[in-house]
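Worked example

This section walks through a single chain of length 273. The input is the sequence exactly as stored; nothing has been trimmed or padded.
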Amino acid sequence: MAPLAASTSTWLVDIWGVMHNGVRPYEPACEACRQFREGGGLVMLVSNSPRPREGVAAQLDRIGVPRSSYDAIVSSGDLARSLVEAYAGRRVLHIGPERDLGVFAGIDVERVGADYADAVVCTGLYDDERETPDDYADTLAACASRALPMICANPDLTVERGGKLIYCAGALAQAYERLGAQVTYAGKPYLPIYEHVFAALEQLRSGGSDRGRMLAIGDGVRTDLAGAAAAGIPSLFVASSVPAANRLDAETLEALFPPGAPRPLAAMTRLVW
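Given that input, the structure is written out below as tokens.
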């Protein structure tokens, strides 16, 4: 990263897959971010986690990602909360684990079943270690039959946890859309989360949101890289989840980024200084 760092002042860094694998930190990535900050750069962690930033920071502490490797966090959960606030005083169906209840903290919504809800808030699967989207077919069909709008608090389809791929809220939202239902997504690759990021960067440092000096770093082609391209931000691809990442070559890159698709400035098998 050192050669690229010289032409950038702000990094937007994905967390899961770049900074850790859900179980342990990627120490070279943490060190690269620390060195960039030591040289005067800003590191904003941008996550599709359905948890608000405080919950993400607590998770990073538990995993062992040092706070010296980043300046601030913006999460999909932060944006999802602003969408949930539109249903204050109403009833919602929450699809997702208890650990994601922070998305409702301080918001006056009643969590009910599908038959009584005014909307669906999907933060993930109830048991993502065992379940798949197929297990939710009946629930999604019941919600779609009532034309309930869905807020998807994590657009990711899958994520790697300790070497195992698990389904995320985005997979359920995708299945719900196939039923003809309406879904509003919080997080990458959608522009609203980048608007939150730019505002947060300006609070950290005047001029911190200068896209000409910014670099988005991520392992998600349809989320991190596509979102960066739509927001006008150059990107770096970290191929941590690509099957052949250890032999990242021209053939692999052409398959990932065919002509006409958003292309990163560079690709690495892992983030390292």
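What to look for: The first strand starts at residue 10 and ends at 13.
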